[in-house]
Structure formats: structure tokens, C-alpha cells
Amino acid sequence: MSDSRPIAPFGRRSVSIVETRSLGLYQVIKVQDDAAPLVRPGQFHMLSTTVGWGGETGGRPWLGRAISFLSTDGAGGIEFLVDGVGPGTHRLSSLKSGDQLDLVGPLGNGFPEVGSSDQTKPCLVAGGIGLAPILALSQRLELDGVEHDLILGFRNAEFAGAARDWPNASVSTDDGSVGEQGTVIAPLTRALDSGSRTVYACGPPLMLEAVRALCDETNTPAWFAMEAPMACGFGACFGCAVETKDGIVRLCVDGPVLSGSVLAGISSTGRVDAQ
Amino acid sequence: MSVNFCGVELAHEVVNASGTFDPLAARRTFGEVAFTDFPFSAHVTKTITVAARQGNRPPRLWEAPTSLINSIGLPNKGIDRWLEEDYPELRKLPVPLIVNVMGFDTDELLKLVGVVTGLEDVVAIELNVSCPNVETGTIIGSDPDECARTVDAVRGLTTLPLIVKLTPNATDPAAVAIAASEAGADAISMINTLRGLALDPATLEPWLGGGTGGVSGPGVRAVALAQTASVCAAVSIPIIGMGGVDSGASANEFLAVGATLVAVGTASFTDPMAGSRIAGELAGLRQL
Ligand SMILES: Cc1cc2nc3c(=O)[nH]c(=O)nc-3n(C[C@H](O)[C@H](O)[C@H](O)COP(=O)(O)OP(=O)(O)OC[C@H]3O[C@@H](n4cnc5c(N)ncnc54)[C@H](O)[C@@H]3O)c2cc1C
Ligand SMILES: Cc1cc2nc3c(=O)[nH]c(=O)nc-3n(C[C@H](O)[C@H](O)[C@H](O)COP(=O)(O)O)c2cc1C
Ligand code: FES
Questions:
Q1: Alpha helices in B70-163 (DSSP H)
Q2: Where, by residue number, does the polypeptide cross the bilayer (chain B) (predicted)?
Q3: Which of A107, A226, A232 to mutate to test the pocket of ligand 3 (most atoms within 8 A of CB)?
């Protein structure tokens, strides 16, 4: 577990949205956050909107929502990628430039540092909204000049529109409407065969479990950015419990990135899979 | 505003509610400032039991209108590892410690209180009585006689203030408070979470891994305030009021009905510094 993680300013702060755009079916919101210029791929923030949070129809959203970041300019400009699946993410997706966002973060450990001298070629794998931390890591590796594979899986062409800015990625879709038909497992198997050695993955639990099983079989070191329902994001509530070989951990402080070596299996920690 | 609680001078009236703020995890996330600028005037630990506990199976959280239903299940490392690993770090906090313990029988409680009472920087012990007596099955905090017996069992072991944390899931919390006070409790804290049920929208089966859960947050504040008012009227020992406090104004309501301190729980989840903000707002209100 890395404790050289970038440290978050204490408390919740308000930032301004400077830009929004859509990426496939997802929404990108960009903020300027001068208080925390450094974030590590795989870290996340707890987000809520300053206006229109709580007290909506049904009384939700009320607690903050955990959202990874998609990119950073290293000077406080941070982009989030939001998949509207419920009241919180729908509200976040509706934000416009100039609106205020409340956030706490950066939180969690993030992916371990990948050195350019590492002999093990990184292979990055994302499914669905798992795209955000994986593209953040890809951006970091590109800046550091680390060659890597990038494998992106989507449900269909509409969602796959999110991959448009990454022409070098190998894309697969469940329905074959774009790229290769099927899951990320076939391209991942090929990448491992051709010398990719450490896997970094984020996506829905079913996909992560398939990737984990493959890496386990092939003795491939792997890191998984995982999800669990979260109320606080900084270790206060014990709500984000995830089972590992070492017992139950709090995903928000001990993760969200966990090594494959501590995972016996990956399953959804909510009852209904948001994907 | 500085306040005297059971003979202990605290910088202001706002402490954290047990199980809702982990200073060690906060320090990993926010750095040393989480200690130096600790938001509360005392740190109340999460409930510590004799044996280590994993806690309940996920899912553990359900968001309801302005409230949260949790079934965390009191995960903790057990008193021995707490003493070895956490206590030496928690002592570095700039505020005194209140240690919250739960025993599943009298022997366990005796062990816990016996260990905690000798510890430096610990200024009070909070008894979480929202658990069943393993012999009778009754939730100790819901029954005046059970509660009195529990306080009586440990009273002789410690000269530290004993705080009894009441559950709101009792027919008559004031009767439990009177029994606790007569048995020698020095203070009452209340309320613990209200029993609640969340159903999976797809299957209409219980959502939470623990079956039912405990409701907290602003949605329970009116209930907490009414119960706090009735207990304040019934006993003369100091009260730590809590349940949905999220502002100086709502903290001030608990003080208005007679509480000496106010605890903040769920509000810290949305803002880790909620305690400081609430203490500041409260000080402002009390100066008017
Ligand atoms: C570390 C981390 C990083 C993440 N990064 C991103 C990201 O970059 N982009 C992104 O879009 N998403 C991300 N997520 C997922 C995101 O946090 C969730 O999709 C979001 O919290 C859903 O909130 P909602 O209100 O939109 O939907 P909800 O209604 O909360 O629905 C989401 C799921 O929660 C469950 N649910 C339904 N009702 C309730 C209820 N009342 N209480 C509790 N649970 C309920 C169901 O399983 C439902 O499918 C991340 C999650 C984690 C933990
Ligand atoms: C996630 C969570 C965990 C809690 N854990 C404990 C605990 O370990 N021991 C305890 O006595 N109370 C525990 N409580 C109850 C709180 O201390 C408090 O009594 C209750 O939440 C009401 O206050 P609030 O509305 O400000 O949160 C917990 C509450 C929550 C929400
Ligand atoms: S989300 Fe609260 S402890 Fe992890």
C-alpha cells in the first residue's frame, strides 16, 4: 500500500466548472481546483453540486458521489467523466460551465507508480465508465514516455464513442458494432502473449473478475481500481467494505486500487449492478 | 466556547459521534492537519469490543431522504490490537479521548473497562449498550433494569466518568436514563441510530447485508431532539445530544433542551471538517 499518495486538503471545498462536453454517452466536467494540483491516476473525489443536491424528488442525491478523474493538467485543471446511472450522477451530468461543485479529495491510494525503466510493459484495460482512471493512467504514462497497451471494452458503438480521442486503443464492443466483437479478454490474452506484463484494470465487476482470473492463471501481476458504495471516502464510515484474502478492507482508504494478489474474487458490492 | 463536562475542560461543545470519524484514516488522507486541526473538542472512539470483529457483509449503506441507513456491524480490531496499534497514535491528538466500548457479557465489559480506565489521555468511557444481553436476548439499552445492572457491574472498576449511550429504540428512553443515572452513570449520550429497513428496489428483499440497519442524519433530528429533551428533563447528569446535527443552529437546539455537549456523526461524511464549521457557527450563535 502506497502512503506517498497525494494528500487532500482537509475539508470540503467549492470549485467552479470551467467546461463541459460529452464523450460518447458520458459527460466530461472540467473544474479548476487550485487547492490540490496533484492527483494520482486511480484516486477519486467525493462530488456534490453546490445547488440542487439533497431535497430533490425522492430526497436523493444527498451524500457525495465517488468519481475518479479522467485527466489533469497538473495545475489544478481536472476533468471528471460521469456516467448518469442514478440521481447523483444525473445531477452531476447536468452541470454547466460556471456552476459550482463541492468536492473532497483527492482520495484513496491510486495506481502504484509505473517507472519508465520498468521491464514489465503495462497493459491498461477498461470497461465502460472504468475508462476514467485508466485513461488518466494512460495520459500519465504517455507523459512519462512509457509504452503501454490500451484495451477498451464497451457495450455498443454509442458508448464506444468515448474512445474517439484514443486512436491507438484496441476497442471491443459486446455487439461488435465497433472494433472487435466480444469482451476485453481476447485482446488482453493477445497482449499478454506478446509481452505485456503488468495489468491495470477498471470496469464492471464481471469484467474485472474475468481479468483477475486470467491474470491469476497466467501469473500476471495486476492492479484493480474497484468500486463499492461509499458514504464518506476517507475511512470514517466503514461502509465501503470489500473482502480480500487479508480480511475486509475499507476500499476508500486501502484502495480503490487493490493488487490482484489480495483478491480471491471480484463481485458487485451493491445488489444491483449499476452497469 | 469552552465547556466543563464531568470535570473535564473541553475547548467547545462539539465532539464526534462514535464510529463516524477515524482520525488515523483521516490522517492518511489529509495529512497531519487532520490531527493538528482536529474538528472536535474530544475524540470519541468507534466502539471497541474484546474480540476483533469483521463487521457485516456488504452492502452496508443505503441512502434515504436526508438520512443514511447503515449496517456496519461494529468492525474493529479488538481491544488488544487497539491498545497496541491505535491508542499510541490517538494519544497524539490535541484533544482528550473518550473510549466507547461494548461487551457482550459482563466479563467482557469488565475486561474492557478495566483496560481502558488506566490509560492516560482517556477522560471518559462511553458504554455502547445497543447490544443484546447474550443470556436474556434483551437489548441492554432498551430495558431499565438490564441497563442499571450493566452500569452497576462496572461502576466500581473506574473513577473515570461513565457515559451510557442510549438507543432510541427503547419504549421509554427516559426510564432507561433514570436507571443508568441511579446506578452511577455520570452522563448520558443519545441517540444511537434508529432501527430502519431498506428494501432492494428490484427484489423487495432487505438490501443491507445485516438485514435491518440504523438510521442517522438530519432525517432523525426531530426524534433525537424530542428524546434528548425528555431525558434532560428526567435526569440531572450531563447529556451529549446527537442525531442529525449538521449546523450550529441544529447543535444549538440540543443545547437549548438541556444537553451539555453535542456530537456530530453523519454530517462529517459529506464534509470532513463539519465539526469545526458547526463549532464555529455555534460559538457565533452563543455570542449573540
Ligand atoms: C472509487 C470510485 C470511483 C468511481 N469513479 C466513477 C467515475 O469516474 N465516473 C462515474 O460515472 N462513476 C464512478 N463511480 C461510480 C459512482 O460513484 C456511482 O455510479 C454513483 O455513486 C451512483 O450514484 P447515483 O445517485 O447516480 O446512482 P444510485 O441511485 O446511487 O445508483 C447506483 C447504484 O446504487 C444502488 N442504489 C440504488 N438506490 C440506492 C440507495 N437509496 N442507497 C444506496 N444505494 C442505492 C444500486 O445498486 C444502483 O444501481 C465510482 C465509484 C467509486 C467507488
Ligand atoms: C456509519 C455509522 C457508524 C456508527 N458506528 C457507531 C459505533 O461504532 N458505536 C456507536 O456507539 N455508535 C455508532 N454510530 C451511531 C452514531 O455515533 C450516532 O449515535 C448516530 O449516527 C446519530 O448521529 P448523526 O445523525 O449525527 O450521525 C454509527 C453511526 C453511523 C452512521
Ligand atoms: S466510504 Fe466511508 S469508510 Fe470508505
A1: 78-81, 87-90, 106-117, 144-155
A2: none
A3: A232
